[in-house]
Amino acid sequence: MLLLKPYIFNKCPEIISVVSTKTGAGRTSPYFFNMSFSVGDDENIVKENRKFFFEHSGINPEKAAYQRQVHGDNISVVIKVGLTGESDAMITDKPGIALAVSIADCVPVLLYSPDIKTIAGVHSGWRGTQKKILLKVLNKLKESGSDPENIIAYIGPSINKNIYEVGKEVAGLFDKKYISLKAGKYFLDVSGVNLDILLNFGLKINNIQVSQLCTYAMKDILHSYRREGERSGRSFAVIQMKENN
């Protein structure tokens, strides 16, 4: 099984952070090592996949919290494990709860504020990015006493700015610096928008890691809805504060 482990959290021994890939448990086409119940994969296989992934990540599968992602800007404050409801960001200050963000092209952002011992997991596609869901999460952390200069952030794998084609109307929702125009087609840098949100909020550049992995291009490693369509799997980007720290 191939797992991605953000190095930015190495400085925080109390944090576990990991991203699943297509590879694991010997799963094959079309869903491969899939974490989602909503794509048509066999439910029992998905349960086995999740258990396999969490156990190999050092996380108790029963400690995971999930959200029903709807490409919006709702934020769930998580106080217990399991399904939280409809949202695209989760925040918790409860040690032991692992926040699992489902991804397959959209930008995942994992955050840790050591000041207030709080973590967050954000799912930010173009809709959530346009609605500034990440900024809203950062504001919630700040309202709780977090100093932006101490927040640690990981922007995970997503579809690359040179590949993510959008319509003219969507392109018009964003500053021109995030748009590339090639052969009459518009391409959006969603990861870049979210990076600037972090920097403009006051995070230090050396507290931010931006994955350079493209979900669309890395067809042997990463799931991509844009590449595979409806019969595509999903990965998890997960962050957890260990208990007893």
Notes on the structure:
With 245 residues, this protein is an alpha/beta fold. It has one domain: 4-Layer Sandwich (CNF1/YfiH-like putative cysteine hydrolases). Helices cover 20% and strands 28% of the residues. The chain has a six-stranded mixed β-sheet, with no helix packed on it. Strand 12 and strand 13 form a beta hairpin. The longest helix has 14 residues. It is globular, with a radius of gyration of 17 Å.
Encode the helix/strand succession as letters: EEHEEEEEEEHHEEHEEHEHE
Tell me what the CATH architecture is. Answer: 4-Layer Sandwich
Give the uncertain stretches in residue-range form. Answer: none
Q: Order of strands across the widest beta sheet?
A: 1-2-15-7-3-5
Shape verdict:
globular
Radius of gyration: 17 Å
What CATH calls the topology is: CNF1/YfiH-like putative cysteine hydrolases
Number of alpha- plus pi-helical segments: 6
Beta-strand content bin: 25-35%
Task: State the fourth-level CATH superfamily.
Answer: CNF1/YfiH-like putative cysteine hydrolases
Helix content: 10-25%
- Quickly give the structural class: alpha/beta
The largest pleated sheet is described as:
6 strands, mixed
Tell me, rounded to a whole number, the average pLDDT: 98
N- to C-terminal separation? 28 Å
**CATH level 1 class label:** Alpha Beta
How many β strands by DSSP?
15
How many domains, as an integer? 1
Oligomer: single chain
